[in-house]
Amino acid sequence: MAQPDTEAAAETAGGQDPQYGDRLAQFEEQRGRLWAIAYRIMGTVSDADDAVQETWLRWQAVPAGTTIDSPRGFLTTVVSRICYDLLGSARARRETYVGPWLPEPLLDGAGGSLPVGAAGSGRTDGPEDRVTLDESVGMALLTVLERLTPAERIAFILHDVFAVPFPEIAETVGRTPDAVRQLASRARKRVRAEAPRRTVDRAEHRRTVEAFLSAVMGGDLDALLSVLDPEVIWRSDGGGKVSSARRPVIGRDKVARFVRGLVARGAQGGALRVAMADVNGAAGLVFAHPESGQAGVFAFTVHDGRITEVDAVTNPDKLGHLDLDRL
After folding, report:
1. Distance (Å, rounded) from C-alpha 300 to C-alpha 309?
2. Which residues contact 290 (CB under 8 A, 6 or more apart)?
3. Domain spans of the chain?
4. Record's Pfam families (predicted)?
5. Residue of 84, 160, 91, 107 lying closest to 281 (CA atoms)
6. By the 8 A CB rule, do 65 and 19 touch?
7. For the chain, what is the radius of gyration of the CA atoms?
8. Contact at 8 Å (CB) between 286 and 323?
9. In tens digits, what is the pLDDT along the chain, a chain of 327 residues?
10. In 3-state terms, the chain is what percent helix, strand and coil (to 5)?
11. What would the CATH number be for the domain defined by 202-318?
12. Is 155:179 a contact under the CB 8 Å cutoff?
């Protein structure tokens, strides 16, 4: 996660505004949370970085002597509004994207990490139907959020994930609090209906992914079939930059054949490296082929000990923020 250039700004602005030091500290305190909000809204690391950088610039631009009663609320509104404005053009680009569009993955344990401070939503309790912060960063849910309107996505993420009050969200999307409440309700219903069922047991999820990896690398077709759900869906995001399936592969037999073909092609020339890593908060896989330069990140959805969805990101433009050389 890129950081706003606060040090350079300090040299030019620190002596001009006696409040600068306080504002810098206030921004740094909220920066991880701001990035977490921006990533969930935008689904890309670069857009989240840009949104946080622009938020910093606007925070700097607040006139000297201005009192901000709630820096947290102010900064949340600013970063959300920036993302709201960005979503329109982002959605237009994604409509012409080659093949399925998937979010950019975050890794922990393979040269990348979830952003510092991302776990601090500030919520102490809430309705049971709210998603948790960990769930909200999952690839499967982020993919579902792509189907919402920008206003619905903002309302859902800010209210259901970060517990931002409706009046504050209304300032972001230019609606009334009642209208925002309806937006969040519609988004919640759609997420409930379209988000895949998944296990909340991290140990079960990891065991299932480990069984998948063992079956694939061992060439055990029966074991591979046993760990795949009959209606499993495999989505590949190559962005037209690398060879990948441009339509989802659906069904246990088809996915098994598809995966075996991937492994056979990847093994040609040797040096294929595969490792377990946490992908967007849950066990996944990362592969790299130093000789060809190809790499990819696989995120899994698991239910009842079987894999129901696989999101495979191989577009090199979406992997540039990861240090895959450390595999």
Report:
1. 6
2. 271, 273
3. 18-114+131-194, 202-318
4. Sigma70_r2, Sigma70_r4_2, SnoaL_2
5. 107
6. yes
7. 21
8. no
9. 555 555 545 444 444 566 778 889 999 999 999 999 999 999 999 999 999 999 999 999 998 888 889 999 999 999 999 999 999 888 888 888 999 999 999 998 443 444 433 333 333 334 444 455 667 788 989 999 999 999 999 999 999 999 999 999 999 999 999 999 999 999 999 999 998 888 878 999 999 999 999 999 999 999 999 999 999 999 999 999 888 889 999 999 999 999 998 887 766 656 778 899 999 989 999 998 877 778 999 999 999 999 999 999 999 999 999 887 766
10. 50, 15, 35
11. 3.10.450.50
12. no
Question: 18-114+131-194 architecture in CATH?
Answer: Up-down Bundle (1.20)
User: Tokens representing 26?
Assistant: 């206030």
134, two tokens = 């960990």
d(CA 32, CA 173): 22
Alpha-carbon distance of 159 to 76, in angstroms, equals: 12
Euclidean distance between CA atoms 132 and 119, whole angstroms: 10
Q: How far apart are CA 12 and CA 86, in angstroms?
A: 29
> What type of residue is 177?
P
Distances from the Cα of 141 to the Cα of 5, 55, 96, 192, angstroms: 32, 26, 22, 10
Q: Which two tokens stand for residue 228?
A: 């795949």
